[in-house]
């Protein structure tokens, strides 16, 4: 088989034979399909990545099969990317250098559920993990809106927060990510265990510095959650209500999202359930706290349009409320109009409704705000995932500059470099682990802007250059 990507000179027929008995996928159309993730959310990334393909897909089903795959890749000097559900937005699993795609979804067992933790293989779907936990009276401390198709390994490698973060913090907060088992890419791949603060060397590194095979995460007791949709006459009113709910000591909450009324027009499944042309606050609140939640909404000038238990939601054939949060909000718009895109923007801390109101006057009619509330390091924070009606890269740069000039830092969603998103900015400790775990630099190396500068240095020398 010749190279599909056109970027390698490896004999892929011989490579596939050497992988036996591991399942492989070599049909070009299927390999190309697995070379994509949700990078098309960004017109800039779409133009840069849409023609990047791998050459072969391996589908290991056990840690032993994974070791075999990595040993073969090492022997052939094959570039490698890891792929879970393919729900990343930045091209994390797109093979820039061609080569081997390792699909982890066959390694999908929930291995252990204990008091306050769950241990699962990296390819386990988060919806399946939550279903297993529910039987034990527990749930994941957080999960993304894409839980039905996203894997836990992919979330750890590329995610940072999700539904539950307003209660339990970001994934990187101490205690949320308990342990990782990670394999190296060597002649004889070795298993390493990262625990405590050391997990941050692997977390959000896009699979550059080791192959995650097993994850142990914090869990929390499950509650009788009720999906809540409230509407407001002004966006800053919805945001201010979110701040009050986030601070309220007598209201638990698992999700807090505010959405511009113009975005809500792209939510057809909510038509008739929420007031039209109003700004939206989305939340998940335990049943016993609904009365207090409703009182805060009313005091803030809002209207509680809809409350649904899970049984009521299923009976009404409505989506989960978190389908209108995080990047599912972006997806709802993109289903109707591919000219939209988004950005990732930090906000002043503590949250300031007046700052949001002032910025709305400056940002432009082609930017529609959408905020998520979370706790990071114990503080209540918000971040904006606005819908942006893309026209030119220059206009996008102007929008970014307006945010930055007003004290709202931009964590660029339109770059395929791991250092561009804000968590791994020239993180030499992370790259030192890449050198130790991946001495040939085969794992997704193109995604680091810094790796080429340090790849020939010893790991300890790389680590000495700086840190987080």
Fold and architecture overview:
The protein is an alpha+beta fold and 468 residues long. Helices cover 30% and strands 22% of the residues. It has 17 helices and 20 strands. Strands 14-11-13-12-18-19-16 form a 7-stranded antiparallel beta sheet. A hairpin with a 7-residue loop joins strand 8 and strand 9 (191-195). The radius of gyration is 22 Å and the shape is globular.
Number of helices: 17
Largest sheet: 7 strands, antiparallel
User: What proportion of the residues is helical, as a percent range?
Assistant: 25-40%
Quaternary form: single chain
Shape: globular
Structural class by sheet pairing and helices: alpha+beta
Strand order of the largest sheet: 14-11-13-12-18-19-16
Task: List how many beta strands DSSP finds.
Answer: 20
Q: Give the C-alpha Rg.
A: 22 Å
In the predicted model, the low-confidence regions spanning at least 5 consecutive residues are: none
Instruction: Estimate what percentage of residues fall within beta strands.
Output: 15-25%
Average predicted local confidence, pLDDT: 95
Terminus-to-terminus distance = 43 Å
Mind sketching the topology for me?
Layout: H1 12-19, E1 23-25, H2 28-33, H3 43-49, E2 56-59, H4 63-76, E3 80-83, E4 100-103, E5 110-114, E6 117-121, H5 126-134, E7 138-140, H6 152-158, H7 165-168, E8 177-183, E9 191-195, E10 211-221, E11 225-232, H8 235-247, E12 255-259, H9 261-264, E13 279-286, H10 290-299, E14 303-309, H11 310-316, H12 326-334, E15 340-342, E16 345-346, H13 353-363, E17 367-368, E18 370-376, E19 379-384, E20 387-389, H14 393-405, H15 428-437, H16 451-454, H17 459-463
């Amino acid at each position: 088989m010749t190279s599909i990507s056109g970027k390698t000179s490896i004999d892929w027929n011989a490579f596939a034979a050497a992988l036996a008995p591991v399942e492989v996928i070599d049909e070009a159309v299927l390999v190309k399909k697995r070379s994509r993730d949700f990078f098309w959310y960004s017109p800039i990334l779409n133009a840069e990545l849409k023609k990047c393909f791998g050459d072969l897909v391996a589908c290991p089903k056990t840690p032993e099969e994974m070791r075999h795959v990595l040993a073969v890749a090492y022997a052939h000097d094959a570039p490698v990317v890891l792929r879970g559900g393919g729900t990343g937005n930045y091209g994390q699993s797109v093979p820039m250098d061609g080569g081997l795609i390792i699909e982890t979804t066959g390694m999908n067992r929930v291995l252990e559920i204990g008091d306050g933790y769950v241990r699962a293989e990296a390819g386990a779907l988060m919806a399946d993990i939550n279903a297993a936990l529910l039987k034990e009276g527990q749930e994941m401390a957080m999960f993304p809106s894409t839980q039905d198709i996203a894997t836990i390994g992919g979330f750890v490698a590329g995610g940072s927060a999700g539904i539950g973060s307003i209660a339990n913090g970001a994934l990187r907060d101490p205690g949320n990510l308990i342990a990782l088992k990670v394999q190296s890419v060597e002649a004889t791949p070795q298993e390493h265990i990262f625990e405590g603060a050391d997990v941050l060397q692997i977390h959000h590194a896009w699979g550059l510095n080791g192959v995650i095979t097993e994850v142990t995460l914090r869990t929390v007791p499950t509650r009788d959650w009720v999906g809540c949709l409230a509407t407001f006459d002004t966006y800053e009113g919805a945001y201010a209500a979110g701040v009050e709910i986030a601070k309220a000591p007598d209201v638990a909450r698992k999700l807090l999202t505010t959405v511009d009324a113009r975005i809500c027009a792209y939510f057809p499944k909510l038509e008739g359930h929420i007031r039209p042309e109003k700004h939206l606050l989305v939340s998940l609140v335990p049943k016993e706290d609904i009365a207090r939640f409703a009182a805060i909404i009313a005091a803030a000038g809002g209207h509680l349009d809809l409350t649904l238990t899970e049984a009521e939601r299923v009976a009404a054939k409505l989506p989960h409320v978190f389908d209108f949060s995080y990047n599912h909000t972006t997806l709802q718009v993109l289903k109707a109009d591919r000219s939209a895109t988004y950005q990732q923007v930090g906000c002043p801390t503590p949250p300031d409704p007046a700052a949001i109101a002032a910025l709305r006057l400056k940002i432009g009619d082609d930017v529609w705000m959408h905020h998520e509330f979370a706790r990071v390091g114990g503080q209540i924070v918000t971040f904006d995932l606005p819908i942006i009606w893309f026209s030119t890269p220059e206009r996008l740069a102007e929008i970014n500059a307006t945010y930055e000039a007003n004290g709202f830092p931009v964590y660029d969603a339109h770059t395929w470099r791991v250092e561009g998103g804000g968590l791994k900015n020239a993180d030499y400790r992370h790259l030192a682990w890449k050198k130790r775990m991946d001495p040939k630099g085969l794992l997704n190396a193109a995604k680091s802007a810094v790796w080429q500068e340090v790849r020939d240095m010893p790991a300890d020398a790389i680590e000495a250059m700086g840190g987080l």
